[in-house]
Amino acid sequence: MSNSEIEARKTVLQIKDLRKSFGDNHVLNGFNMELYQGENLVIMGKSGSGKSVMIKCLVGLLEADSGTIRVMDKDITKLDQSAMDILRADIGFLFQGSALYDSMTVRENLEFPLRRHSKKFGDEMNTEQMVHEALENVGLLNAIDLMPSELSGGMKRRIALARTLILRPKIILYDEPTSGLDPITAKEIILLMQEIQNKYNTSSLIITHDVDCARAISDRMILLIDGVDYAVGTFDQLASDNDPKIKAFFKH
Ligand SMILES: Nc1ncnc2c1ncn2[C@@H]1O[C@H](COP(=O)(O)OP(=O)(O)OP(=O)(O)O)[C@@H](O)[C@H]1O
Ligand SMILES: [Mg+2]
After folding, report:
1. Which superfamily does 1-90+173-234 belong to?
2. Whole-model pTM above 0.70?
């Protein structure tokens, strides 16, 4: 996909001048980004650089100090609770480390978001069928009655992905989708993310410090350095940059 093709697209998510500090720990110092319809945008930054803080501001789990966040042309800082709930049903969030509910079976883990966002699907919602389809999408229908403690790390990540997908989000936010997985399992998760992207034409924001993941999946990348969008470009553009701060990410 060429840059001009991407730029001609609709913006589904936009962050402008986002600032967030915890006391005198200034984490985000004016971060900007734009996610276009249908693209995979990777955000890389070293540990502690504020990637999770940024994504949490985006979904309203943290309140930004200042800046604007627009999701599908709506300024989320200006939405009331019910409007925010409706919007949230369109944004899937795959948490860092899966975050399944340990006391619930896989089936119950998947039913949970459906119940919370039942308004989105109305009376026609067929919970059983939706749970089955979501599990089939990640190849784990046979795990439906297992507890999270009975799953491997890779399986947990797939179930978490199924739980995100079940709401048919237009935008998916992935926080470190491959962290803690061996390289082969990580590759399987990346393939799955690509399949989902193709099947549902979602737009994805992927936070990672896995260079292989970034190479495989990104249409564009942003490097989050010193609390700002330090560099923006394709993987190849950034990987061949001579700036030492940028080069540091691509060294193996
Ligand atoms: N709720 C919080 N209260 C206080 N400080 C916080 C809070 N959440 C994050 N921080 C601080 O913000 C900074 C950025 O944290 P964040 O979790 O966003 O890093 P990250 O880039 O996601 O790192 P990693 O790659 O390790 O996941 C850290 O210094 C962290 O201590
Ligand atoms: Mg993080």
Report:
1. P-loop containing nucleotide triphosphate hydrolases (3.40.50.300)
2. yes
